[in-house]
Amino acid sequence: MTENIVQFFKNLPPKQCATCGTEIEEMHECYSNQCSTCNNL
Questions:
Q1: What are phi and psi of 23, to 5 degrees?
Q2: What's the DSSP call for residue 15?
Q3: What are phi and psi of 13, to 5 degrees?
């Protein structure tokens, strides 16, 4: 059962910025949906 959960998370697509669509490198303490460039506008 644990292997299925791990596979699920490994197969998720990369997170994208809601504004410009660039890929966001996720950090464990961040739930932002915008990249740092768009976040600073």
A1: -70, 135
A2: P
A3: -70, 160
